[in-house]
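>> received
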Amino acid sequence: MEDGRRARDLGIIVGRLPAGANNAITDVEGVRVGHATIVRGEGPLVVGEGPVRTGVTVVCPREGWTREEPAFAGCHRFNGNGEMTGLEWIREAGVLETPVAITNTHSVGVVRDALIAAEFEERTEEYWCLPVVAETYDGTLNDINGQHVAAGHVREALADARGGPVAEGSVGGGMGMICHEFKGGIGTASRRLTEEEEVWTVGALVQANYGRRPMLRVDGAPVGRVLTTERVPSPFENGETPPAGTGSIIVILATDAPLLPIQCDRLARRASIGLGRAGGGCDDASGDIFLAFATGNRGISWSGLSNPPATVPMRMVTNEHMTPLFYAAAEATEEAILNALLAAGTVTGRDGVTAHGLTPDLLLGALDEARALCAR
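>> returned
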């Protein structure tokens, strides 16, 4: 995180719930985030040589290896022009057993294989692994067909994974991403809520790479109608519509509330509310895929034991108390998208294509104009 480049630093408060200490997905105890960023070369594209503007980001649900202490999980496909591996087992069994990695579209395979290799090095007795790896397309800025993400970068991201503040913007898997025709990337936010004597946190991490400029909204204000491509150029040649297939967003939600898998499914769906409030979610060619995991239960898997118990005790939030969690997921997703935009900066990639950053001054200068549009 960079001081002064987050929504709350600018006095922009999204929603009504308070943020956690770091306003990040890592406010959920045990969750860690790591990045490996690859920046190399400039000028015309030469496939296999660059320029390179890409990377990988990992989200680790708990301290230690996730397989030793899985988390209940659920998912939602809001629009399916994208990929997140491992979801069939999550839909079937309701558990997340690996870290989650996010990279570019053409590097999913190598990241998946590298996660398997890293786990087997540490846990040689394991005989299978279905990693969760998601993608968005960065080929406008990056030599995506050069497939520059390697196993070593996955190991670097895993070694970098830690709690506390999270680097945002043009880092890790977000390095080459574009959002609402500004520079996009990684963003995070959290919400803290109290239900009677329970204090729960919901955190969101996004890889934002979607959207048309006129649709961008900030705290309800139509900022994209003010910051037109005439005022801030688009990285796309026509300056109006991103080419089909270039958009997508991945949202990872984490909570320490004791949710069951079907409740994680329900929580994941609420990321679509935050996306819609920011101005996304309506493009046919976008891959909008959301994953939610809950760490509030432990001991849900006894794999590897010769005589596992037939039953284990579980806790769950009653459905009547799910509403605050839904609000938290929507608010954290919306703010995470804005944080990604504000932190990204301006990046020039292949063939001299430039994605301009949504700077704090630019945004604050546009907000009054945008709010005036709403008052007409």
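>> The mean pLDDT is 93.
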